[in-house]
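Progress report, Aim 2. The chain analyzed during this reporting quarter is listed below.
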Amino acid sequence: MSTTSTAATTGTTAGIDPRGPQFAATITALVLVLALLLAPAAAALVLLAAQTAVFAVGAARGVQHTPYSWLFRTLVRPRLGPPTELEDPAPPRFAQAVGLGFAVVGLLGFLGGVDVVGYVAVGLALVAALLNAVFRFCLGCEMYLLLKRATAH
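Predicted structure tokens for the chain:
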């Protein structure tokens, strides 16, 4: 389900190309797969720490400010036609915060020697990234919309 019609709900007016977060989810999924395959080795921790930093930027400043978004705007977007619609950036930003939470838990699990916590947390983040990358279904975005509806008066 797309979040393209949520601008009125969240009060935002600027939209983002919805293909950008899907592209970012693809890179995220690749990074997380590599981290899981290499875990708990140091290389996995470096990859997971880097992905955690990307999530932190996306949560703090918006998905459009991440390095993955820059890659999309620079390398991919110029080769595509214009988007048919724009997406509210608030739900993907919330999704980045959710991803950040799972990445932090995973990183702390691996660093603390509780590898099963690391594997589960990173695995859950990977499932969410794959849903977006493959099906353009943003689980965190849907959580955002459900929370908005639940807290609306």
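The radius of gyration is 16 Å. Residues 1-12 have pLDDT under 50 and may be disordered. These observations will guide the mutagenesis work planned for the next reporting period.
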